[in-house]
Task: structure prediction
Amino acid sequence: MNEQRSYWRRLARGRMSRRRLLTGAAAGLGTLAAYLAACGGGAKTEQGKQGSAPGAAAPPAVPAYGGRLQVAYGLEPSSLDPHIGNSGGDRFSYAPMFDTLVGIDERGTARPDLSLAERWEVVDPTTIVFRLRPGVKFHDGSPFDAETVRWNIERVKDPDLKSTARASFLNVDRVETLDPLTARFVLKEPSAAVLSDLGGRGGTMIPRGAAEKLGKEFGSKPVGTGPFQFVQWAPGSHVTVKRNPSYWRKDAAGNQLPYLDEVTVRIIPDQTVQFANLVTGEVHLAGLVAKDLPAAEGNPDLTVIKREAAGVGSVLVFNLDLSPLSNVNLRRAVVAAIDPAAINQAVHFGRWVVAEGGLWTPASWAYVPAANKPKYDPTKAKEHLRAGGAPDGFAFTLLTYSNPILQQQTEIMQGQLAKVGIKATIEQKDVGAATNAFFVERQFPLYSTSWGISGAGQEPDGICTSNYTASGFYNPMKRPISPEMEDLIKKGRQTYDPEERKKIYARINEIVFDQVFFVPLLYSSLWAGLRKPLQGGENLFGGAFTWRYDFLWLKR
Amino acid sequence: MQAYIVRRLLQAIPVIILDTFLAFALLLLLPGDPVETLIGASGGASLDPEQIAAYRRELGLDKPIPVQYVLWLGRALHGDLGRSTRTYRPVTDEIKARLPVTAQVGAAALLLSLTIAIPAGVTAAVWRNSVLDRIVTVVAVGGVAIPGFFLGVIFILLFAVKLRWLPPSGFVSLFEDPMRGVRFLALPVLVLGWESAALVTRQTRSGMLEVLAQDYVRTARAKGLREARVVWVHALRNALLAVVTVIGLLVGRLLAGSVVIETIFAIPGMGRLLVSAIGARDIATVQAVVLIIALSVVVANLITDLAYGVLDPRIRFR
Result:
């Protein structure tokens, strides 16, 4: 033990010289990093068309069959059983193997050509009849039929399965099988949201036989009807799928889908390392972040596909009952003091989008800009402060969760607030703890956070139910926001006409902004980099912006 | 000697018990309720109270904490570390797949660091205060001071992106495909090995300096032995006793380093498993991985102590 102690003593003695040395070494490496980052050249950039619908357009050239696609993705799946998994990133790994009863495109619209149901009809407000696509088989050869649909919905609803999709199906009273290819959904209450719910986890169809035989193992040996079938999941490393030769879909020219022989999703947690893999050609496809965009756009071997304003990257959530922000004028002062454009420039190089609407983004069918949305206006901030009885400002604690991007955003907000005399003390917690502290324990007046893209696409009903109803989990007050709100949410859910619904959700946003409750500041954008041999990128994004591999092909 | 071994083994027992307790206590220390985390942090996925209660029952979280600990310890003694709350798979299966990966990376890093560090340390000691000694010191201190995540990214940018010599990330087992395996292992092992090499170099250097000043070395020189023999045989053998101690400590450092290195280089080992399990509040997995890592360190130190006793008679008779 003596040796150890003297070792540490010696190490401690060497500290001074080491520090001097470190400064030099760090400076040198910093220069090297800057040089390396600047490497790359060329100028040609192609950008995918904004908002083009997947599967709608015919591929631009005659696609070549075959090839193995390598994909980099950051999150390890929690399970490949679509009903059970609990991580938002799961779908990037499981989706290629499955289809949903109702197919959802990237705007959140239900599309029969993407669906296992050929067509559907709302017979009356609580009855929807689905006519299933004939001849569809699971990878294990078992047929997909109405009985399978009924069993799947029952499975999701079973509390013992602990499916995160269960809550959205509690409104489904029962599923009746009228004949092998016709399933009738009987709802407890009318719900237009059920269609998009059927396009998410809960509407993903799995075969009863394999699921019952494998039990919990199904999550690591999945069987579906999708364009690709399972080959291997090496935890921490990759998920590999191969072509399903008898997939039911064809492209617009009548060619059998998918084109690729095999897809491997490599789990690479670090964003910089993902990009390194893309640049060196180890993978054909990877997500990009704002800092890598200039290098990607300048790289002649890469094509950048973007989707602007896809998610809510920065949102202020107020607790309307907690002092001092229980005063609506002070809430208005806070929003008027914060300049989202400056945050966008500083943190995201101006690549995100300043929000002009609510929690459903411009990428959703339901999006409408809101005229009464509180905006940045430092002179008005002073007026609001006076109206709120705090002309010289006030102090409060601002909660955020531990995430480097949120932390930067929130620190800039803190500085902007200080300019008008509002003193915000930032408290940072781990995401689960922050959610609990704000929404359950109700300890903080303001939460600076982000809002994910819902797994069911861009359907506002889920957000309204969980955020704006009196009993919603994400309503920290646990009381109605306004007398009108509960009825509006119900009406929105029970209306089947999209245009009518759009008006209802616009009105809901108006109320939320009047109250200054959920105020989005920035919409986040999504980018993907494709290496040149990879074609079909215009069809990359599917529902909930999940990557689809069935339209991609590799040029020889 | 036997008494010494028995004494060391007995001393390890309370340490192991403390390890199990600390590993279990992580459940209480981690911020956020594991079941609440499963509900999801933001919009979309959610579980209802009925499902949450089912989860608590299944994970045994409805029982008092001491009872949970005893039950967990009892199962662990039978080799059952529970099921992952995230994937539902037995944690032991997961560890069986991950441990060999970390072992390969760690062993390669250790081997690399020893082959470089011992000659470097000896050189630095023999030519003390020379330019060579300065260079060795600078490189060694750099290895300790530059964090692995930074060095890792710089190496990827340099060797993979710029020079295109090596793949940027990934892992292939040396036993499956030695040629490709080496290419994938090179960068992570270099990063991980550098820090260990730095420590061993410093230890070897100071050990050698101490030994070279001793009388028996003067005697060896006086009786006309060649300098190389004096340094590499007579002096080094005694100086290495101190190095052996460091190796025991290095096992712990390498395991800790693997957490960072495996995440950067996308290596499916224990470190990655730990990081993703913490992120998902996968308590059973976190407890199991921490327990295995702690036990590995205890065992490594035990072996070091025993080896030390074998090498140096003064220790075992003390």
Q: What stands out?
A: Confidence is low (pLDDT under 50) at residues 41-45 of chain B. Chain B touches chain A through 69 residues (CB under 8 Å). Residues 170 and 250 of chain B are 24 Å apart (CA to CA).
